[in-house]
Specification:
Order of helices and strands: EHEHEHEHHEHEHHEEEEEEHHH
Distance between the termini: 32 Å
Low-confidence stretches: none
Radius of gyration: 19 Å
Number of strands: 12
Strand content: 15-25%
Mean pLDDT: 89
Bound molecules: S-adenosylmethionine, iron/sulfur cluster
Oligomer: single chain
Length: about 325
Amino acid sequence: MTVPLIDPFARTIDYLRVSVTDRCDFRCTYCMSEHMTFLPKKELLTLEELERLCTTFVRLGVKKLRITGGEPLVRRNILSFFEGMSQHLGNGLDELTLTTNGSQLDRFAAPLAAAGVRRINVSLDTLDADKFKAITRWGSLDKVKRGIAAAQEAGMRVKINAVALKGFNDVELFDLVGWAKAEDMDLTFIEVMPMGDMGDGTDGTLRLDQYWPLKNLRAQLATRYTLTELDHRTGGPARYVRLEETGQQIGFITPLTHNFCESCNRVRLTCTGQLYMCLGQEDMADLRAPLRASEADVPLEDAIRAAIARKPKGHDFDYSRQKVAGQVSRHMSHTGG
Ligand code: SAM
Ligand code: SF4
């Protein structure tokens, strides 16, 4: 029997997030600069190589695979990758899913559902079309809404992820909650993390100024709803409350106000084959070299195990004392959130 992947802090690693491209058709201000230099295509692993890598992880005990990016659905032929990975569903793999900005979902929802995707995370921070355009720089709210509708028609459960931004979507808190209820979608808020371009304030996007601690968001929610803390965890960093008046569950991902590292079960693979053992640290392991060096999988498996043995205890993000600490220089699109 294969020995599972267990890190030095006795955490079983059974969740792999894969960024299949660093490219995106949006330029969200907290994620990318307007003028990004992307990796030359030749640097990228081919989809076949990504499939071999992911298959190796599944053999080593990974049960959940989340495809992300950049925007995963802008990678050419990405459906073939989903179709390939779906062969592992029920055969080691419990869940195949993705995080998307929703821009391409209207055409991809049905084939993704056919490939076994049952749940999907769509990132959306505002219900105001002008604000949506401003925060994504290039996106269209209407198109994303059409994508969400297509996903639901195809039978997928949709979860909305919204980055909590002070002075931006704080005024829309109750609208977002009401919309999620009306559309029967789950909703999770995320604290903005200090990654990549921190903004210089000239366009109003100084990251620290936008930081809206989720404990304040919760306090605002509590002015209208009765919040019941829920115990259940999804194996992820989110914590949940139930709104008693509506029965909705609202998630909170709070890397800054509440450190969730002790239960971390995941690692992140980039489209060039770098494995990041922690979202908030710079250390990574190159898996492309062992992948390409041999057709045999043993050197690759050894490299994966050696990387897991280096997984750090946690990140060092910290906004206390009104300054940013623990930031990492890469953009979120590099590791896919
Ligand atoms: N393009 C896809 C999308 O937007 O869903 C997948 C990749 S995106 C990098 C994954 C998630 O990271 C999105 O929900 C996005 O809002 C979030 N994200 C990006 N930059 C962030 C930051 N600085 N702090 C917190 N979340 C961030
Ligand atoms: Fe693209 Fe997602 Fe980053 Fe927005 S958050 S720029 S959609 S990768």
